[in-house]
Q: What sequence folds into this?
């Protein structure tokens, strides 16, 4: 999984919600990051397991925590399920295409 900016969204109640300014950092099998969505700003923590599944916890400042479990499709996209207090839905995320180590981004399409 590459570190840097990622496109991301989640689906809830028949609607799609974009996550903005998502940055993920990978250090071996550990991940950290941040972003924002309609609920507010959040921090991301988690890990990638031996089967290459992404386990992630999205923590908002108001102490709400959302659990994510996703699988890599081999072509760049990670998709799966999120859950919060008995509610659940789907999500998908993928690295921003054209991101360069300099921080320059040449393509924001998802």
A:
């Amino acid at each position: 999984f590459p570190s840097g900016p990622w496109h991301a969204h989640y689906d809830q109640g028949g609607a799609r919600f974009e996550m903005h300014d998502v940055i993920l950092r990978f250090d071996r099998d550990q991940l950290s990051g941040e972003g924002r969505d309609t609920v507010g700003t959040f921090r991301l923590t988690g890990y990638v397991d031996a089967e290459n599944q992404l386990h992630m916890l999205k923590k908002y400042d108001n102490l709400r925590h959302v659990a994510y479990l996703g699988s890599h499709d081999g072509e760049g996209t990670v998709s799966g399920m999120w859950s919060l207090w008995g509610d659940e839905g789907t999500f998908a995320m993928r690295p921003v295409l054209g991101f360069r180590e300099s921080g320059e981004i040449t393509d924001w399409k998802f």
Q: What stands out?
A: Confidence is low (pLDDT under 50) at residues 105-110. The radius of gyration is 13 Å. Residues 46 and 83 are 15 Å apart (CA to CA).
